Model the fold of this input.
Amino acid sequence: MANVLASAKLLFCKVKQVISCGHRTRALVTALSMLLTMLLSMTLANPAYSAQALVPQPPQLAASAYILIDALTGKVIVEMNADQLLPPASLTKMMTSYMLAYELAAGNVSLEDQVRISEKAWRTEGSRMFVQEGKFVKLEDLMRGIIIQSGNDASVAVAEHLAGSEEAFADLMNQHATRLGMTQTHFSNATGLPAEGHLTTARDLAILARAIIRDYPKDYLVYSEKEFTFNKIRQPNRNKLLWRDSTVDGLKTGYTSAAGYCLVASAKKDGQRLISVILGASSTESRAQESQKLITYGMRFFETHLLYDAKEILTKARIWGGAEDYMELLVEQQLAVTIPRGQAKYINATIDVNNGIEAPVFAGDVLGKLVIALDTDVILERDLVASMDMIKGGFFKGIADSVKRLVSDE
Done:
């Protein structure tokens, strides 16, 4: 803007120098002055830098690793050492509870199942639900014992109920991790107790938290419960943010001497959900405070916008030689973007449809591209696909289209 004003000042000085050249020159000067005024007004009203959001540097946290993502888009807002392999401690139980929800959804088990507590489950050290060997406990109570009380005994009992042994359950945990895209994670047990090779990353834990919230929203509600009483022993949820921030509704804490104090949290406000992961904080208070910093930063300076629903029709494509002239094109998945707050007006979409598309066409065939940009920066690209099958037209339709194509720009 300073350059524009300096140029304007110089131009006006030049104009003054020719004012004495007569009426014709004065008229030209007047016209030039009006034009310059209009251009300056346009520049001031629509500065080129208006699309640049004023976003401060993210907070620097006292933790070994951390990440903040948007739950809908998966967009990484903040990260530090997000791919560093670290022990997850009781954050492991997020996968244990995810697998329980998976088996419940598949109909393989029921929350009403009575689970017999083995000696191994009863003897498991660390945080406990205080189940007793040989007793039968309802699977629903064990789920709360895992999520709310962080019970190692409950985790082993569920692992044995679902897979026969904790070792077999750990193998299934790793298969689920691979399926979800947790590419750097390896589980050795259902509890998070220290074990060789039992490692994950902040990024992988964010992926897991996102899957829990997305895939099993009803079961996710348990993560927001502040306490659970079993066998006349009341234990509070160790996630302090549930008491401090009404937007926070999960997920899980963890601690071992090797892992430090860890917390995966999620918060939802005005339709936007964020997921934060803190690994290796110095205390229970520190992990809560550092998580709060991340969530506050994300909510304050970023927002998510849903652009298109899954299977939404966006345009049509000309199909040559088909039974019909045109085919509707759609985006297969829901499409949303996470951008700096206040920048939605600079989002623009460009649709590019392939030329010369010939029948037959099958549903799902890629026939074009959707490009989403924020001002001039491309932030997302998605394929546009055929919404249905289209067979070839008859003989006369083919002849007619051949003639039309001769005069077409395709």
